[in-house]
Amino acid sequence: MSPTSILLVDDEPLMRLSMLDALKAVGYDVQAAATGNEGKDLLLKGQFDILITDLQLPGIDGLGLLQLCKEPSRRTEAIMITAHGSVETAVNAMKAGAYDYITKPFQMDELLLVVERLSKVQALKRENQQLRQQLEGKFNFQGIVGRNERMRAVLEKVKLVAGTDSTVLVVGESGTGKELVANAIHHHSPRKDQAFIKVSCAALPETLLEAELFGHEKGAFTGALRQRKGRFELAHRGTLFLDEIGEISLVVQVKLLRVLQERQFERVGGNETIEVDVRLICATQKDLKKEVTQGRFREDLYYRLNVVPIMLPPLRERREDVLMLAEHVLGNRSEHVKKAIKGLSPAAEELLLRYSFPGNVRELENMIERAVALGREREEIQPWDLCGYATCPFLGGMPQETCGFCSEGLTGRIERKDASESLATARERFEREYILSVLAQTEGSKTMAAKILGLSRKGLWEKCKRYGIAIGATEPEED
Ligand SMILES: Nc1ncnc2c1ncn2[C@@H]1O[C@H](COP(=O)(O)OP(=O)(O)OP(=O)(O)O)[C@@H](O)[C@H]1O
Ligand SMILES: [Mg+2]
Asked: Which residue intervals define the domain Sigma-54 factor interaction in the entry (predicted)?
């Protein structure tokens, strides 16, 4: 791995030289500049991991250089050098996004320590990013993301069945990715350059659905002013995707059975027999077997459709996929709207892991899309960006209504199969959860919550700050 690259900007020659020597001696790749403008030119020319800059410089100053580092295309983190007694400017620099600051006069060891810490954080971030990319590649097939065991089996099946002409029945709750799977099968099949036709069987009444599927002759029924080809004909040599197949009437079921058995049919109101070569993929949220026993679905048709069944598990049964999916959508969305979002905050991640997602991946997608729209550039997504409720209890507001996301997040328990965390981590997690549930109980009243918890208001404020619970920006006076 290449050494950490550093840009050092200081106008005092002696300081600059001693820092340069000290940093080079430990093996960093360092370039130095004597003025802000010189530093800016170097920053714009190359990619540095770290900028170490004096705040006060002739020309463009340290804060100006820091701003350049914060541009989305840059990955440079800044360490600011401040004059003794100028705490306020140091605070401003931190607010503007500096990683840390160091006050003059300082020992070289102090500087080296800060640099070493930052370079470790950066290495970890890079590692995470690489890992994420690798995971995405391995656990992503045609946009279907999942590392859960059942999802991996689904992906294997999708790959295998794509190469055949077999009829596929995709079953799963709303938003679990049935259409995505149908798309992937077609686009990975030898028919990929031919038509991919979709019909939503629930959207049309029986007679219209029949005409839609098989076409009609001129005058077949009132309003049939000219001959029209049906979806089966349009899908010739390609794939036909019949969505919500559980909704079709018994009459249409008979016709469908015939096409599947004989590969031929007549248009509504016509005599000509039409032969087609169509690969069929069907999807349903229903338990078709149950529909069969209750007499609503023909058994013979069921067996014809259920040649290769693909069952998509609901998201609540594959929680290990939640964060990967969230990152996947976050990457796509922020790229789409050109907004550099830093990622999910630990609190947001925790809530996502707890939530049951009745709307499955579609609901998660909508949540992230909203968060990207509401979230602030270069900052992490917070729980309240996800739910979008202005009166979210997390914000300390009085919720007029609590959305399912929050109430579950506040009271729910994560199933933890691995008992691998340290006592300190477990204690912190418990503290955080408990504070959240007390805040929910007091409907955001900090005074009451502090009383119940046996803390001062300042004490509660400090804990909340530590655990990323938003309860107001101003620190309360000691009481
Ligand atoms: N495993 C997955 N990886 C990535 N995106 C997914 C996954 N599953 C679903 N999605 C996304 O979630 C959204 C909903 O998926 P899709 O439309 O395929 O669901 P569905 O099962 O057909 O839902 P419905 O029954 O409501 O029609 C889509 O935008 C899809 O891209
Ligand atoms: Mg669908």
From this structure: 144-373
363-399 per-position pLDDT tens digit: 999 999 988 987 777 778 877 778 765 445 444 443 4
Helix (H, G, I), strand (E, B) or coil at 470: coil
351 lines ligand 1 (CB under 6 A): no
Nearest CA to ligand 1 atom 30: 177
Q: Give residue-wise pLDDT tens across range 294-315.
A: 999 999 999 999 999 999 999 9
Beta strand pairing call for 228-229 and 308-311: unpaired
Whether ligand 1 lies within 6 angstroms of the CB of 177 is answered as yes
| CA 202 to ligand 2 center in whole angstroms | 11
What is the atom index within ligand 1 of the atom nearest the CA of 182?
Answer: 18
Burial classification of residue 456, based on how many CB atoms lie within 10 Å of its CB (0-12 exposed, 13-18 middle, 19 or more buried): middle
Ligand 1 site, residue 438, Cβ cutoff 6 A: no
Of the candidates 325, 346, 342, the residue with the CA atom closest to the CA atom of residue 334: 342
Mutate to test the pocket of ligand 1, among 170, 361, 363, 366 (most ligand atoms within 8 A of CB): 361
Q: In ligand 1, which atom is closest to the CA atom of 312?
A: 21
**Alpha helices (runs of H) in 282-411, residue ranges in sequence order:** 288-293, 299-305, 322-336, 346-354, 360-374, 383-387, 404-411
> What domains can you pick out in the chain, each with its CATH number?
5-135 (3.40.50.2300), 144-313 (3.40.50.300)
Which ligand approaches the C-alpha of residue 177 most closely?
A: 1
Pocket lining: 203 vs ligand 1, CB cutoff 6 Å = no
**pLDDT band per the 50, 70, 90 thresholds, residue 475:** low
- Do the beta carbons of residue 188 and residue 142 sit within 8 Å? yes
